[in-house]
Amino acid sequence: MFANLGRLRAFVAEATLLADRHGSSGMAGPTLQAALADLVAHDDWLPESCAAPHPEYYQQHLLHCDPLERFSLVSFVWGPGQSTPVHDHAVWGYVAMLRGSEFSQRYLKTASACVPDGAPTALQPGQIDVLSPLGGDIHRVWNACEDAVSISIHLYGGNIGAIARHVFDPDTGQTKPFVSGYSSAHVPNLWDRSAEVRLTLK
Ligand SMILES: [Fe+2]
User: Fold this and answer.
1) Per-residue pLDDT for 50 more than 90?
2) 76 C-alpha to center of ligand 1: Å?
3) Residues 156-185, mean pLDDT to the nearest whole number
4) Exposed, middle or buried, 62 (CB in 10 Å: 0-12/13-18/19+)?
5) Global pTM exceeds 0.85
6) In angstroms, what is the span from residue 136 Cα to ligand 1's centroid?
7) CA 140 – ligand 1 centroid, Å
């Protein structure tokens, strides 16, 4: 399928302008969330290489990282049965559902455990979950579809794959540092606009 990378490029441009105006911590808000909602309202732009599941592990494909590391955009690809550990983020985040569905279970950290905070919530295509370290952002996420791949698009207030954060043992509350990295060494090429420019040639 031809990926309409223009949508992704337009989102990156808007997020960059917001980062220029408001900085990494100030760019999150209704304008950015609306731009992300518009991005996931269409399912014609994600390159197949960034939508491919792994038989064992959920995938985190970097779509774009701001050169000043003020934000990053990542496609999470969930195979059936795949889930994260209980983890935090250290920066603000938006989780926007593109295909399928995922569950998120929030947790509260106590001195001796991580306890579930309410019931799991399901995210459907087009819906966005907001994460903020200020409000408590510990959660576990898993594919809600037992027999299909689900994909969510995550936007973070930093280069999320290179940020030191934490995983938690929910039974003991034990905390371990971790850095997620990314699943691929490659990012989509947003900048080859030659085909559209060729159409303008006389
Ligand atoms: Fe998360």
Assistant:
1) yes
2) 10
3) 95
4) buried
5) yes
6) 12
7) 7
Give the end-to-end CA distance of the chain in Å, rounded to a whole number.
28
Residue type, 195: A
| Gap from CA of 87 to ligand 1 centroid (Å) | 6
pLDDT at position 80 over 70: yes
The alpha carbon of 201 and the centre of ligand 1 are apart by a number of angstroms equal to 46
**Residue 113 pLDDT grade (very low, low, confident, very high; cuts 50, 70, 90):** confident
Residue found under tokens 């698009």: 153
Q: What are phi and psi of 34, to 5 degrees?
A: -65, -40
Residue 192 has pLDDT above 90, yes or no: yes
Above pLDDT 90, what percent of the chain? 91
* Residue 156 CA to ligand 1 centre (angstroms): 10
**Residue 1 pLDDT more than 60?**
no
Q: Report how far ligand 1's centroid is from the alpha carbon of 195 (Å).
A: 37
Contact 138, 192 (CB under 8 A): no
CA of 89 to the centre of ligand 1 (A): 6
167 neighbors 176 (Cβ within 8 angstroms): yes
Name residues whose C-beta falls within 8 Å of residue 32's C-beta, 6 or more positions apart in sequence.
14, 15, 18, 94, 155
